[in-house]
Amino acid sequence: MIDDFDFALGESADMIREATRRFATDRIAPLAARMDAEDWFPRDIWPEMGVLGLHGITVDEADGGLGLGYLEHVVAIEEVSRASASLGLSYGAHSNLCVNQIRRWGNAEQKAKYLPGLISGEHVGSLAMSEVSAGSDVVSMKLRADQTDGGWVLNGTKFWITNAPYADTLVVYAKTGEGSRGITAFLIEKDMAGFAIGQKIDKMGMRGSPTAELVFNDCFVSDAQVMGPVNGGVGVLMSGLDYERAVLAGIQLGIMQACLDVVVPYVRERRQFGRAIGEFQLIQAKIADMYVALNSARAYVYAVARSCDAGRTTRFDAAGAILLASENAVKVSLEAIQALGGAGYTKDWPVERFARDAKLLDIGAGTNEIRRMLIGRELIGKLEKVAQ
């Protein structure tokens, strides 16, 4: 296994990696091909992950979690994604986008109500932000929540929602006013009247991580379901986006490691012109480039995760970490296909799946174009302040 460089992440991260790797190798990896072929989500594995504590890594021990940080969370999602990136995506949507947001913004009653089932894996979590016409421009969302006696009535739809078909608890953002100051976060339960799952979305990659539309038709929710301040949803959303980007970048690390796990043994065994192809310098160069792409992304992602834990993260570095990891993962997965030649272009080998899976995070959690815009804008803004 080409993962021997010691990043000195600490004992907790090393223990999480070892435990997650064993579980992922034994329980997740054997399911990966079926998940992709059948677009099948292995719901039964969720409680098993709960037993390991994977769903509540960043949740305080007093609330039933492990009380660890984003660095350990990145390591866990990396090892899950090494076995199956699609399960890694569902895991990230559950444990970070849903569980971690409730940890950060839920009141005591909401935490007591929702966190136990989500942390144990009895329940599946999701987050609903995007709509058909509100992706990168999220504040243009149309889902409305109108105030009424004792609560709110929601009408509209959400789209591209990971885990939606299986979710028991969803963090949903809706318009409660005008502009960016008129968005509120709500906690929605799957059985609420007026709430339904719409069409399931058939994706190019990350198959087995279920994605669907949400439909709200006069869905009443009580005031107790409001998470965070009314009309303060953009603050809730944006404050979580940095952590989301840091954690989801771990998926791409797992994909790159999976590519090396396949390619290195293959080039040692595959023979052409009477020699193992790994003896040819062009193949050695590919392996070197793949390894450097992985470890350079690891260094940035781990550093940003540590900064998150220290309360020092910057928005542009969170964007930069997932930008580097995602673009590197796409390149590495394509090189993995090339290294295997014709075999790599078939479904007999998993590298074509790695490429399809890797492409998602060039788009999800903010497109690479948006990430570049954010980084450039923030850095220019900092320079302008210095100049003043």
TrEMBL record:
Which residue stretches, if any, does this entry annotate as coiled coil? none
Q: Which residues form the Acyl-CoA dehydrogenase/oxidase N-terminal domain?
A: 11-122
Q: Which cofactor does it need?
A: FAD
Q: Does the keyword Ribonucleoprotein apply?
A: no
Any one Gene Ontology biological process term?
L-leucine catabolic process
Q: Which Pfam families match?
A: Acyl-CoA_dh_1, Acyl-CoA_dh_M, Acyl-CoA_dh_N
One of the entry's Gene Ontology molecular-function terms is: flavin adenine dinucleotide binding
Which keywords has UniProt assigned to this entry?
Branched-chain amino acid catabolism, FAD, Flavoprotein, Oxidoreductase
Lineage, top-rank taxon, reads Bacteria
Report if keyword Glycoprotein is assigned: no
Query: To which pathway does this protein belong?
Result: Amino-acid degradation; L-valine degradation
Recorded protein name is Isovaleryl-CoA dehydrogenase
Source organism per UniProt: Sphingomonas zeae
